[in-house]
Specification:
Elements: E1 8-10, E2 13-15, E3 19-21, H1 36-44, E4 50-57, H2 74-89, E5 94-99, E6 117-118, E7 127-131, E8 137-141, E9 146-147, H3 153-169, E10 174-178, H4 184-189, H5 204-207, H6 209-222, E11 227-231, H7 245-256, E12 263-267, H8 286-295, E13 301-305, H9 310-318, E14 324-327, H10 329-333, H11 337-342
The protein binds P-hydroxybenzoic acid.
């Protein structure tokens, strides 16, 4: 029986164990540049089998929150090089999560103060995080988006491709395509946020088109074995919904099977919330989702996420339900989470007030076991 602490090869990624650090927004990158302290933060957690960075914007247009990092400027790539260098020095493996927020943004964060972009001009009932003129951070409602012109979509695909290239330049081991949590790609997938009448809206095939065009581009650029993807079939995060998520996401994973990806990362339920959260008429069947992927020939590692404790994670891996399990908040407060899980040691509590923004406190000062 496989254990959470066994090594795993996922595509081109060689992982020391099955414990993954989930992507976690920390808002500590002024002007979208990761600071030296980010290298300390990630290196402290390098005993994870895989580190997934915080969501990282592929373009200025893809930015939706103050002080989140990017991967489209030379200074950003230099900032990330410090992170990958420190993680590799510590023996870890790290991928960067590629992010376009779509409508979850604010005019003050967009090029020339313009409207955020979306599949359709529908404002999300959601908030974003901005910094006011006095330098104070606050949550504020997202701005009304404009619908993307079909002629603009190749430019967005190209931005993803360039960001994947930049990831390799910054010495990342690979990338994770963020197709979850109500951001741009998920906005296209879900019928509530996508009311287009062109080739990118309507049928499931059309709504998934952008996702596959982006995957075509980034796998051609850096090789599918260095690419993972994150999906969240029923999450209501950022005001997305779909009345019929099972056929939609079964279609998505069957399409993913043809690439030879490193992994498929699935958020079960409401992101950061209830695992049994339901959209549509029936509970979502994650085992059926995984079977659909395997039956279509998908060989990537299957990564489960959302509220697993150590025992549940061990059980998920031992039973074959998942190959990898991602932990979020527990990794913020436990840099040595792998050791603590292995030894069944108590975990440090996290301090929610230091999740977003700030400095060292709540970032690089959580204690490890001695
Ligand atoms: C956030 O910044 O709050 C955030 C970012 C990416 C996610 C979820 C939440 O996938």
């Amino acid at each position: 029986m496989p254990s959470l602490f066994d090594p795993l090869v996922a595509g081109e990624l060689k992982l020391a164990n099955r414990v993954v650090m989930a992507p976690l927004t920390r808002n500590r990158s002024p002007k979208a540049v990761p600071q030296p302290i980010a290298a300390t933060y990630y290196a402290q957690r390098a005993t994870a089998g895989l580190l997934i960075t915080e969501a990282t914007a592929i373009s200025h247009q893809g930015q939706g929150y103050a002080d989140v990092p990017g991967l489209y400027g030379a200074d950003q790539i230099e900032g990330w090089k410090r992170v990958t260098g420190a993680v590799h020095e510590a023996g870890g493996c790290i991928v960067v999560q590629l992010w376009h927020v779509g409508r979850i943004s604010h005019t003050s964060l967009q090029p020339n103060g313009g409207a955020p972009v979306a599949p359709s001009a529908i404002t999300a009932k959601s908030k974003t995080y901005v910094i006011d003129a006095e330098g104070k951070g606050e949550f504020t409602p997202t701005s009304a988006p404009r619908a993307l012109n079909i002629e603009e979509l190749p430019g967005i695909v190209s931005d993803y491709r360039k960001a994947a290239r930049a990831a390799i330049e910054a010495a990342f081991d690979g990338v994770e395509l963020h197709a979850a949590n109500g951001y741009l790609i998920d906005q296209f997938l879900r019928s509530d946020s996508n009311q287009r009448t062109d080739a990118y809206g309507g049928s499931i095939e059309n709504r998934a088109r952008l996702l596959f065009e982006v995957l075509d581009a980034i796998t051609a650029e850096i090789g599918a074995g260095r690419v993972g993807i994150r999906i969240s079939p029923v999450t209501p995060a950022n005001d997305v919904s779909d009345p019929n998520p099972q056929p939609l996401f079964n279609y998505v994973v069957e399409g993913l099977a043809r690439y030879g990806l490193a992994y498929v990362h699935v958020i079960e339920g409401a992101t950061g919330g209830a695992r049994d959260f339901q959209q549509g008429d029936a509970p979502f069947d994650y085992a059926a989702l995984k079977s659909a992927y395997r039956e279509a020939g998908g060989k990537g590692a299957w990564m489960a996420n959302n509220g697993y404790d150590g025992a549940q994670a061990q059980q998920a891996v031992a039973s074959g339900q998942a190959d990898l399990v991602a932990f979020g908040k527990a990794f913020i407060s436990n840099p040595d989470l792998v050791r603590r899980l292995r030894e069944q040691a108590p975990l440090n509590d996290w301090d929610q007030s230091t999740f977003y923004g700030g400095g060292e406190r709540g970032y690089v000062d959580y204690p490890v076991l001695t």
